[in-house]
Design a protein that fits this description.
- It is built from five helices and six strands; from the N terminus they run E-H-E-E-H-H-E-H-E-E-H.
- By secondary structure, it is α/β, with parallel strands linked by helices.
- A hairpin with a 2-residue loop joins strand 5 and strand 6.
- It is elongated.
C-alpha cells in the first residue's frame, strides 16, 4: 500500500516562527510560491499567504521587518499524516478542494503533497486495463 510519505516533496518551503514578515514577503514575491509554512522547532504552527501579509501588515501599518511570522501565521486549514493511504489522501484533497497540503508526523512538518503529483503517482500505481479483444 502506497502512503503519502512515498509521494510527498520532503523539502517544503518553510520559515521559522521567529523569521520576519519581510522574509515571507520576499519568498511570496515569487509567483510560484502561494504560501509559506511556519514552523517552531520543526512543528508546523501556521501558514502565511499574500492575503495574510496584506491583512496583518499592510492594512494595520505594522513593520514587516519587526513582525515575527509566529505572530501573524494562520493555523493550517488541513494537514495530512505521512502514513495516510494515497487513495484516502486524494479523496481528502478533492473533498477539501486543495491543491497542496502540508504533511506532518507527530505534529512535525515532514513534507508537502500536491494534488498534481498525487494524481500522477496514483496513475502510475494503477494496473494496466484489461481490454477484451
Amino acid at each position: 500500500m502506497t502512503r503519502v510519505r512515498d509521494a510527498m516533496v520532503s523539502t517544503p518551503l518553510a520559515l521559522d516562527a521567529g523569521a520576519s514578515a519581510r522574509e515571507a514577503g520576499e519568498r511570496l514575491s515569487d509567483p510560484e510560491v502561494r504560501a509559506v509554512l511556519v514552523c517552531s522547532d520543526g512543528e508546523l504552527v501556521g501558514v502565511v499567504t499574500r492575503k495574510t501579509l496584506v491583512q496583518e501588515i499592510v492594512a494595520t501599518g505594522r513593520d514587516p521587518g519587526a513582525t515575527a511570522l509566529g505572530d501573524i501565521a494562520e493555523p493550517p486549514l488541513f494537514t495530512l499524516d505521512a502514513s495516510t493511504n494515497l487513495d484516502d489522501a486524494f479523496r481528502a484533497l478533492e473533498d477539501q478542494d486543495l491543491e497542496r497540503v502540508p504533511v506532518v508526523e507527530d505534529g512535525r512538518l515532514v513534507g508537502i503533497l500536491s494534488r498534481t503529483v498525487l494524481q500522477r503517482r496514483l496513475a502510475e500505481d494503477e494496473p494496466p486495463s484489461q481490454q477484451q479483444v
